[in-house]
Amino acid sequence: MKIEQIYTGCLAQGAYYIESEGEAVVIDPLREVKPYLEKAKRNNAKIKYVFETHFHADFVSGHIDLAKESGAKIVYGPNAKPDFEFHSAKDGEELKVGKLTFKVLHTPGHTMESTCYLLKDEHGKDIAIFTGDTLFIGDVGRPDLAQKIVVDLTQDMLAGYLFDSLRNKIMPLSDDLIVYPAHGAGSACGKNMSKETSDTLGHQKATNYALRANMTKEEFIKEVTTGLVAPPQYFPLNVMMNIHGYDSIEEVLKRGTQALSPEAFETAANETGALILDTRDAEKFAQGFVPNSINIGIDGSFAPWVGSMIPDVKQEILLVTDEGREEEVVTRLARVGYDYSLGYLKGGFKAWKEAGKEIDQIKRVSAEELAEIVAKDNDANILDVRKESEYKSEHLLNVENTPLDFINDSMLKVDKNKTYYVHCAGGYRSMIFVSILRARGYVNLIDVRGGFKAMKESGKFNLTDYVCPTTLL
Questions:
Q1: Where does the Rhodanese domain start and stop, copy by copy (predicted)?
Q2: Cα-based distances in Å from 441 to 383, 405, 417, 444
Q3: What integer pLDDT is reported at residue 34 of this predicted model?
Q4: Stretch (H or E) spanning 344
Q5: Measuring CA to CA, how many Å separate 395 from each of 32, 383, 391?
Q6: Residue ranges, the chain, pLDDT below 70
Q7: How far apart are alpha carbons 178 and 209 in whole angstroms?
Q8: CATH label, 247-355, candidates 2.30.110.10, 3.40.250.10, 1.20.1290.10, 3.40.30.10
């Protein structure tokens, strides 16, 4: 028997490959399915099932492509009504994979079709449970997403269902059961997940606030729904793609990895409504970029920030990447449903510059330089673009919070004619913020290199007292 957690850090997402006696099942696969197919081929195994724990909101699952390529059957629990062929498993139904048995546990709450899969060994002993977004390590799935899809639902109703699912289906199970969730810290599907990606159920019963033994349903609903903020706009669009289907990943890659000369790139930018997305790191971007580009670095929480900053998944995109990383960028965009990359700048920004095309730049300052500026000018404007929860936990005195998550609201606080120094936690999000506003005509924003971490470590800024955050949303 093999149980492998395939964890993707930038999405904070866990897919699973389980194999026994030449048969395999993949749970919640990512969009690019080749690694699962190659793994099964190497092991001389046949993928029998693709289990989906629910209709995901934060990524586009590879269930359709994987079933097509492998001949596997897609399985959902009760209440799922997708537009493609699948097996609708009943609550309590058992599915065999080699010598293993998976028992279907319908656990509505995060969504109405949410389902966990309880794994039993060849002797019938419960050994693991794949909980999707029903139970995380340290948290449970947020109950406010499905109401965006089914209008009759409310978050309190869903939280009530989740309370019942946890108490009646999960908590009675053995303490030594291993819990394998769909997400860890950094995902927007919960508000305070642990960085751990598996645990025993017994330890979760002892430490997870949502599994407190003496908790009433009313207390659960209040605690689970407190601190939630609006989910990213792309979440409902990803749900629809997971229900209705999508282009194959091979088509998306073929479309997105077309090499464009600087001239062809410029023509495409001028003649289409394509957005120019530069995925290099913030330092390289600041030194020079194609005018009107926005910067979201590939070496960070790339896909979730693309999803948060670009509201329409059908937006056409032109790419500027580090050389050799074009396919990686197109793949990571496709993971969250952005399938309409039109091509990339051949030779990267260097080729653009050598072709004599117009360039733009963004000024950056270090924490020490900013400290000197503030010492001379107490009225210097500083914007903190971290989440509100981070800001409330600890921030510079007399600094305004303008979260990147809600940039359209935040930009209303910015005067185009004034100079602002912009920081986040470490310098990743602030460059996204500055680049987007620059593309909208705000040319007086200066990025703070190293962000809050560098400013705190410098010891040259006055900070509020630290307060432990109750939510990471």
A1: 270-361, 376-460
A2: 17, 20, 10, 9
A3: 95
A4: strand 341-345
A5: 40, 11, 5
A6: 147-149, 470-473
A7: 18
A8: 3.40.250.10
| DSSP secondary structure letter of residue 164 | H
Please report the pLDDT score of residue 387 as a whole number.
93
Q: What's the pLDDT score for residue 229?
A: 83
Instruction: Please report, as a single letter, which amino acid is at residue 450.
Output: G
Please work out, in degrees rounded to the nearest 5, the angle formed at the alpha carbon of residue 89 by the alpha carbons of 88 and 90: 120
Q: Distance (Å, rounded) from C-alpha 130 to C-alpha 89?
A: 15
Tokens 């003649």 found at: 271
What was the pLDDT predicted at 230?
84
The domain 364-471 having CATH identifier 3.40.250.10: the answer here is yes
Report strand pairing: 94-97 vs 100-106: antiparallel
pLDDT digits (tens, 9 = 90+) for 370-419: 999 999 998 899 999 999 989 999 999 989 999 999 999 999 999 999 99
Q: Compute how many other C-beta atoms are within 10 angstroms of the C-beta atom of residue 437.
A: 23
The pTM of the full predicted model, rounded to 2 decimals, is: 0.89
**Is 360 in contact with 290 (CB distance < 8 Å)?**
yes
CATH code at 2-237: 3.60.15.10
Q: What share of the chain is helix, strand, coil (3-state, %, to 5)?
A: 35, 20, 45
Instruction: Determine the Cα–Cα distance for residues 465 and 274; give it in Å rounded to an integer.
Output: 45
pLDDT given for residue 148 in this prediction:
63
Report the chain's C-alpha Rg in angstroms: 24
